[in-house]
Q: What sequence folds into this?
């Protein structure tokens, strides 16, 4: 199921802070519904910020040119929406109602990675965004990304990026040195 959101500002004089939000929800087979809601503009702003900060995968994110079947797509959708929770392969399999071993095999055949590797990939991407774009502590970043502790985040981050989260933040937030002026004096 995919969801598309379009926002249109209302033009009523009484309430200039409200917006009409149109949600289009499309199922796997093309069926869909459209919902219109009148909501406070500040809520729309918060939802937009959250949506922009949430990593969403596409088939292009997956390695190779392997076809992705419906079970794997359902698993990916569940993981994309729940990576910040403490989920594992067993939880993903339970939530999409398939056997854990079957999911693991199909996921690996279709993506070239394990379910755990995919979850870690999303979590690390989100950790990178939070480390570069916020002043949250590494402990808070770990919690927001679904890791049990800052130590677990640091181990996983170092395994993938070969540096610690603190080193990554430092490298991303370090101001660039001014360039010396060139030209005639």
A:
């Amino acid at each position: 199921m995919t969801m598309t959101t379009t926002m249109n500002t209302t033009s009523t004089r009484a309430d200039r802070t409200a917006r009409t939000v149109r949600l289009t929800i499309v199922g796997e087979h093309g069926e869909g519904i459209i919902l219109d809601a009148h909501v406070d503009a500040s809520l729309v702003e918060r939802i937009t910020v959250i949506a922009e900060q949430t990593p969403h995968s596409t088939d292009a994110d997956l390695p190779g040119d392997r076809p992705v079947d419906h079970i794997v797509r359902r698993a990916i959708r569940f993981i994309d929406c729940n990576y910040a929770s403490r989920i594992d392969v067993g939880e993903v399999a339970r939530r999409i109602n398939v056997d854990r071993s079957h999911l693991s095999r199909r996921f690996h055949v279709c993506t070239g990675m394990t379910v755990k590797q995919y979850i870690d990939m999303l979590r690390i991407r989100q950790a990178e965004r939070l480390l570069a774009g916020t002043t949250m502590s590494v402990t808070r970043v770990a919690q927001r990304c679904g890791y049990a502790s800052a130590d677990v985040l640091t181990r996983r981050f170092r395994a993938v990026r070969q540096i610690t989260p603190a080193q990554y933040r430092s490298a991303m937030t370090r101001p660039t040195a001014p360039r010396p002026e060139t030209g005639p004096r």
About this structure: The domain at 59-171 is CATH 1.10.10.60 (Arc Repressor Mutant, subunit A). Residues 1-16, 24-32, 51-56 have pLDDT under 50 and may be disordered. The chain has two domains: 2-53, 59-171. The helical segments are 41-53, 70-82, 89-96, 100-111, 115-133, 138-144, 150-161, 165-173.
